[in-house]
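Structure ticket #2291
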Amino acid sequence: MAETKETKNGNGNGKKRNPVFIIILGILIVGGAWFGISKYQHSRHHEETDDAQVSADIIPVIPRVAGYVNQVLVRDNQQVKKGDTLLILDDRDYRIKLEQAEGALESAKVGLESARVTTVAAKANVATSQASVGAADAQIEAAKVNVWRTTQDYERYANLIKDHSVTQQQYEQALAAKQTAEKQLAILQEQKNQASQQTQAVAQQGNATAQQINVANATVHQRQIDVDAAKLNLSYTVITAQENGMVSKVNVQPGQYVNAGQALFSVVHSNGVWIVANFKETQLNKMREGQYVVVTADAFPKHEFQAKVTSFSPATGATFALLPPDNATGNFVKVVQRLPVKIEFTDASDSLIKKLRPGLNVSVDVHLD
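Resolution: structure written out below.
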């Protein structure tokens, strides 16, 4: 009887296998195999990473001149357009500097005009002196003729007085006329020399005056540059938005003193955002520019953004770190590096792109085919 019962149960322990367990086990094996094969097939044609963030141009608002803040015309998270006034500095000091520069420019212009007048007078004096020299030359020529004539008369009277053909008085008159003509010639020659020296002195003065004009012109040019620089600095007291965007947290208040080059707050450029995905170096073998990318943001998990790979960073992220790793000490531990990859959105009609903010986490799926 015992052997008959064991034969009916089909085994030695008297228990019967549950078909449900076998079915579930089979389903799990098939499901696991299908999942593994699908993941393998997916990995052959896709590269994924969740080490990715949204990026955008962040424009710092930096004053070009120092001063006290007069007005702050924006608030946190405000939308602004290019050219909108963000804040105004106290411009009284810069207005005074502009007035000083304009006064110095007017003074330089007066000096230039005075130099020009002096030059005109010097040129007139040169012309007058040259005319005096010309007149002296004419008088000297006439005096030379007179000397020649009186000399001839004197020589004739000197010969005639020997045989008493002329009186002593006539001889003395001829001698006196000759001596007077010679003295007159000497005086005229001296006057010519003086006129020539005066002409040279006036000409030198004219040259000096011409140099003064050049100096005055240079001074006027320098003062004009000072005026332009003062106007430029005055314009810098009004700080405007360089691009369309959204203002970040405004950390400046009226009455606060700011330095030139001091970052006050930022404007996040609103004309475009992109993705920076950090892929492992082992994932880059088949990745190329232009490949199709599907992006999912943690903020919008059920929405897929269309994008493409546009560029690869020239170096890994660790290379640009403040303290890049240096393995020259010999204590080398190989760590898989990540390379930033820029991904840009391709569907301009996607309204959710405008809701993405720099720094948000996203996941990217690059289609390698």
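Closing remark: Residues 93-235 form a domain with the Helix Hairpins fold (CATH 1.10.287.620).
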